[in-house]
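Why does residue order matter? Because the sequence determines the fold. Keep that principle in mind as you read this record.
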Amino acid sequence: MHKTYEFLSPLPAHEASERIEKLLSKESVEFTAANLTIASVRTPLVFINADRRLYSNRNWIGLNPFIFVSGVEVRCEQSNNGFTKVTVRINRLRTFLLVAFSVVWSMLLACVMPEPGGVILVVVVACAMWFGTVSFFGGRLVKKEISDCLKNS
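Structure:
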């Protein structure tokens, strides 16, 4: 359910933490910050396409990846070699629930379809939702946005 990423940043730990706080604020994530640790309190939950929190201009997809996750915790630690070790821990409960919801709906739809088509539909929906939502939106894209905000000068 949780996914952890680690990477190095050339910025000092306090500056890296401040940049991540600004990113989370811009993406409508409510958080607490203390001792170079940032923990989300609430991530945006979007129900309609007209909600501006759904969209982002910080990635090539154009979607805010923080709406797909239940929580994010970021820890910045200054290392001896001058770099900052950034640890991003993502709670992906929301993405798992979204996949389960989609698979259940595809199974219901598959019940009224001919047998090979229904099975194929369920498998395709399950794979697409897993790789798209859990792996990409609920993991790599969140990590990429955080690492990108630390690269820009």
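The helical segments are 13-26, 93-110, 115-151.
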